[in-house]
Amino acid sequence: MFAKQPWSLTLALHLLLIAITGIALNAVPAPFESSGIAVFGIGAGVYAALRFPPTVAIPIALIISIPLWLFHSSIVGRESLSLLPIVVSLFGYQKSLRQVIKVGAGFWSLIFLPILVLEHAFYEADQPAMMFSGVLVTWVSGVFGLIAGHFIYLATKGLTRNHVGSQEKVSLHFLFSYFFSGCFFAASMAVVYLSVSLYQDDQKNQITRYMHQRVAVLEQQLSEFIGQHQKAIAVASQSLSTPYAIDKLEEASSNQLSVLAAHYPEFITFLISDESGNITHSYPPDLLQKAKAIGKSNVAYRPYFSEAMETGSPYLSNVFRGQGFGDDAIVAISSPILSENGIPIGIVEGSLSLRSFTEIDELSINGFSLLLEDAKGDVIYASPALKLKPLSEAPTYLCNGKCDMNIEDGPLGKQWLRAQGQLPTADWQVSYYFDYRRLLAIMSEYLLTDLLLLLALSVFGTFMGSVVSRMIDSPIRRLIRYIANFTPSQVRKVETLSGSTLHIQELVSLNDEFSSLEGRLVEAFKALESARANEQALNIELAEFNQSLEGKIEEKTRHLALALEEAKAASVAKTQFLANMSHEIRTPMNGIIGSCELMMDLSLPDTARYRTETISHSASNLLMILDSILDWSKIESGKMLVDRRNVSIMHTINASSVLYERSASNKGISIKVDIDDSVPEILITDGGKLSQIINNLVSNAIKFTPSGDVLVHANYANGELHCSVSDSGIGIAPEKLESIFEQFEQADASITRDYGGTGLGLAITKGLVELLGGRIGVESREGKGTTFSVKFPCEEGMPQAYSASVATHSLPKDLKVLLAEDNDVNADIVMDMLGAAGVKRFRAKNGVEALEAAKRHAFDVILMDYQMPIMDGLTASRHIRQQAKNKDSVIIIALTANAYDDDKAACYAAGMKAHLSKPIRKQVLIDSIARELASV
Predict the structure, then answer these.
(1) Sequence-separated (6 or more) residues with CB below 8 Å from residue 215
(2) What is the pTM of this model?
């Protein structure tokens, strides 16, 4: 469904940057407090959804949304913001601009907005401003993410996409309106968010200042309240500590309790006890009888008795529940009664009602709550909104007294603002609370107002974008209609921007340029009409000319076709001529060279032997000329092939040098071979062609060197074999160096007369070197000598053993050999060679006789001539392989004057095992037969 995204390092870095940016923006704290989700990284997910296929974009979007699930509690808000990029990816990837807007805005506003309203209504139905502001904050986060991601994608990728179908076309009006309204929305949102943030900070600061001020006032009020009542109890105990009061303690005690009850109604009860803790007097008076009735008339176990008796000082107790005089939660204030010697003889105690703190709490502004704790952390008094009962444990927080004002898990499990202080006259802690939800409700009203203003500004921005785009779009549309209706043959005098009340400078310039272009087009149209008339006249002339030209072309084509056929025929004739010449020359050459070899085996006088060697040497030179002509013909026609095999360079070069040692020594020339240690033992190349190259260069060096040395050098570097042949001969003139490699060329016309040669040696050498992929060069000084250098690439091969000398083979005496040869001279020579080897030999004059002989007798070897009358050697070989008495085991060796590779391949295809080119050397023949016998 979607194209597969090719992975690369650049893509991975791109995705990593998107993910980090999105996570960082989503983790940025909201600039204000609300019940909605205010985040700024959704745009990164939307960009990824539009830029990459869903298989890549959806995981990136989920990673970007991780901060939403970590830091925000709104379930629907988190889900909707997380799903927005996913929906855009599934339904907007590679879609049109309008489709992306429809998918994003439709999904966001029509589907999740109602669900968001329901979620907030479930929790915040009692606070409409908080509910709607929270919904709008989350909605604005989604809209901003959609716009930001879409704008970034359009800015980086443009409006062209490689999606199926025609390229998207977007109207200027729509595009300008969309960008204008989007930018206006983003700018307005930034201003509104800043305004709300400043307002909320100001509200928090005002409430914080008030709470700190109120705590200070409460500390003072409560300290004065406690101090006043402590002082009253202390004065009463001091009055009872006088000698007069001690003498009349009963009367004095009753009077003091009556005075306390009359002036300090905040006390619930009063009592006076002796030094043993037994209650002697109480107020109201009937409470003593009630305490005695239930056995609670002794207070020695109470801290307010024991502490006062031990310290001899007034004592303020923690909150506790009364016994005997009632079960109300109270705070006791006690003071010791001292004797004349300062020894405590009893106490005066007043039970302070906790309801006394209600009057102080009522002085607070609505929404603020008071909490008073004793030294043990029990509640002394709590405002009704906190729902904490006296004597219950006061809330504790993990911050251990270093909490800031914002308490997350406060009373009733709600979030509160709290300011705290310590009473200077008692070990009591006063805390002042403000419901954070109430603060949010106050701030949400302002937030809702600003968000509604943002929506109004967005609508206004959209309207203004439409108006401004219409101002630009309308003149362009009129200009387009005018251009569409333009006809060069008709000149109109209508102002294209006449309907515009506000002319835009660029559009006016465009209109002026088109008006100028219109005039030029009209003139050009007139010139075109004139040129068209001239063209028609020229076309008529051209048609007439074409008719005559076509006839000439047809005639020329026939001549070229005829010439091509003649050239092909000439090429075939040339090839056939060279093949026939090779055959006709090699056949008598075989007789000459073979006769010379046989004569050399006889005991001849020195003069006769010398003449015989001369004849053999001359015939070999003639054969070399023939081979050069054939080689050049094959190189020129592109039929020469390369046979790369493992070759011993040292063996090949040494063999070539040995070949010419005799001719060199006859001239008093020494051949020196220098093979560098860098040359591997085995290289992969065409050994035959390498040998021919060295032979040609060494032969050339010997030919043109009257006396001195010929040096053959070889080294190997960078995968190339470097060979050079240097002589101390006559040298070459500088102006002739470029032409010596051309066919039938020599440095000087007199050279042919003095030294002989066909002028093909260096041309053939260059062709062979280039066939091996190398190059040849020459350096020479006239009268000093010449150096030919050859370089061609070759790889190292596998080492193998080479024998220093070739072993001379012998043939079995009972070997039966059939010779098929139509030429009597050649037949006699071969028969004599075989006779000298001591084998049984038979002769057939054509292929038919050879076939009949093979049917009757089981020959070990058949030497088959290539061209014979009645039946040629190829046909005879095929029939022998099918009909001979020992058709499968007989060895057939070709003896032919045809030296081309195609001829050799034809021989092998006909069933022959080996191929020997005429003229035939005796030892070569014997060795060939021996090798084939050994391979069976």
Answers:
(1) 419, 420, 421, 430, 431, 432
(2) 0.48
